[in-house]
Structure formats: C-alpha cells, structure tokens
Amino acid sequence: DAKTTQPNSMESNEEEPVHLPCNHSTISGTDYIHWYRQLPSQGPEYVIHGLTSNVNNRMASLAIAEDRKSSTLILHRATLRDAAVYYCILRFSGGSNYKLTFGKGTLLTVNP
Amino acid sequence: SAVISQKPSRDICQRGTSLTIQCQVDSQVTMMFWYRQQPGQSLTLIATANQGSEATYESGFVIDKFPISRPNLTFSTLTVSNLSPEDSSIYLCSVLDHHEQFFGPGTRLTVL
User: Fold this and answer.
1) Is B48 on the interface with A (CB under 8 A)?
2) Residue A17 above 60 pLDDT?
3) What's the CA gap between B17 and B29, in Å, rounded?
C-alpha cells in the first residue's frame, strides 16, 4: 500500500480554520485519498475523500495538489468537537480491495 | 450511512479464556472488517469477512486465534481465543456501505 506522512500533532484555536497536511509521494493514479477522524473513545468516522479534484462537503474541504503527491484537509471553523485524530489514507480504487490501512494520523487539539 | 452496534461494549477476561464479540449492522452489507486498536496506537486490520466465504486474514493474524463467523449480511462475530494480556485492546467492527467504511463503537477488552 502507498504510504502517507502526517504531522504527529497540530493545535488550533476555536473558530479558526485548520489545515491538516498529508504527503503521499508514492500515490498511484488509481488511489483515492480518504480522510477519517477518530474522536476520543469512538470508532473512526468518514470525513471526505477525493481522487484528483478538490472536494467540499458539510464537514470539510479537501485540497489535492496538482501532482497528487500531497493533500490538505481543511476545517473552515474549528470547534471543540473537532478535537480528534485525523487519518489520511490511500485506497486503491480498482478491483475489490476496499480495505483501509491506517497510519498514525494527526492529533488535533482545539483550544477554546 | 450504516449504523453498527457491538456487544459487549467492554469486558474483563482471565488469561486462557476466549471472548466472542458480536457486530450487528442495520442494513445488508457485503463486506465487513475487524480491526484491533492497541492502547495509544492506530487501527490494525485483522481480517475481512464476506458472507458465504472464509474470512481473509492479514499478515500476523491467524484463524485459530481470531476465528470469525459471517452467517448473514447483517451480522458477524470475532472470537479472540486463548487470551493473554497482550490481547488487551479495542476491537472494532467496520462495514463497507456505498464505497465508504463505517465503524462500530468498539469493544474494549482487558485481559488479566
């Protein structure tokens, strides 16, 4: 599986935007970029995913570099509830291999 | 999105015994997954369970230690056998629904 690299931790203030980076220099053309987050004492939850174009949903935005070797998850206005571990994961889009391989993720702390 | 429940939510077991964890989904799904999350660590995939076929185990996990059943499209069980303190972890069930994975709340196992 292609590998992703994320900072171990980041800190933000409430109501401010947060940009969570992810490097994936060995990404292949058929890999989707997925973001999940895990709130304390809960299972991971889906945040967003994309292939080539930037994506927006009600939770976040995903900005994908033109060469696809990096991406950034953007939380437009952080709240205390956004404090979680954020995982950037590459998933092969072909065949029936839907499994997700989790790295260490980024622990986001949101200060009031 | 699929809603997943797990039983038990937590348990304390003696070494040498076994624990069976149940995973129930509110809709029919083809693919189910079992993950382990050791204290302070990320998630590790144990196996993929498809209805009507043998589970597919990841490297380092074997059927004798982690037998899995998948009797229908809404239910699966994971048994952790011959427990040792090293098996103390959170075990999470996950399902693939509309090309995204959804996770249960997890079962926290402590082995004494």
Assistant:
1) yes
2) yes
3) 31
